Amino acid sequence: MIRCPECSAEIDVDEDEVEEGEILSCPECESELEVSQTHPVHLNVISDDLDEEEEEEEEEEEKETGEDGDYSEEEEEEYEEEDEE
After folding, report:
1. 3-state SS, one letter per residue, for 3-32
2. pLDDT tens digits, 8-17
3. Longest dimension (CA), the chain
4. What's the rounded Cα separation, in Å, for the pair 48 and 54?
5. For residue 4, what pLDDT is reported?
6. Burial of 18 (0-12, 13-18, 19+ CB in 10 A)
7. Phi then psi for 61, rounded to 5 degrees?
8. The pLDDT of residue 71
9. DSSP letter, residue 77
């Protein structure tokens, strides 16, 4: 029997049928788990930190240029003021 490294719940997996790199989901904590080794099967929790960082970067880019690629009204006013000087 394999246990979730996050919550220690038992995961019912046939050790002969899993492949290295396969993604499983814990039925208890719903963590995504990657099979990092077979015979014996070893699972690693897939970190959500990267996804959160990517989302934050995208939000920052949208704030800088706006969703349609244009500058926000505040930034546009700043650029207009600079041009007048």
Report:
1. ECCCCCCEECCCCCCCCCCCEEECCCCCCE
2. 999 988 888 9
3. 73
4. 10
5. 93
6. middle
7. -65, -40
8. 56
9. H
